[in-house]
């Protein structure tokens, strides 16, 4: 994947997710960054964009998406490098 494969909104959302690598980014924060406004919790615009973004990213070594949904909170970007570092710190 390269930047040409991503839409403008997807690039903005990736920037937000990567800025909190391993941490949770709220739907509201993604919404404001990508669209300049907060959508109601029933609006699926952010969820649809995240779904499309997931399809464009390679999977982690465990076969799972790098973008994790955190129920009631938002999304987190967790890649193999971050996961390895996190697990190493827990040892």
Question: How are the elements arranged and paired?
Answer:
Blueprint: H1 8-19, E1 24-26, H2 27-35, H3 45-56, E2 67-70, E3 74-77, H4 80-90
Antiparallel strand pairs: 1-3, 2-3
Helix pairs in contact: 1-2, 1-3
Summarize the structure.
This protein has 91 residues and is α+β, with helices and mostly antiparallel strands. It has helices at 8-19, 27-35, 45-56, 80-90; strands spanning 24-26, 67-70, 74-77. The chain contains four helices and three strands.
Can you give keywords for this protein?
3-stranded antiparallel beta sheet, Arc Repressor Mutant, subunit A, alpha+beta, 91 residues
Assembly form of the protein: single chain
Major β-sheet profile = 3 strands, antiparallel
Q: Which strands sit side by side, in order, in the main sheet?
A: 1-3-2
Question: What order do the helices and strands follow?
Answer: HEHHEEH
- CATH fold naming: Arc Repressor Mutant, subunit A
Strand fraction = 5-15%
Distance between the termini: 33 Å
Q: List low-confidence stretches.
A: none
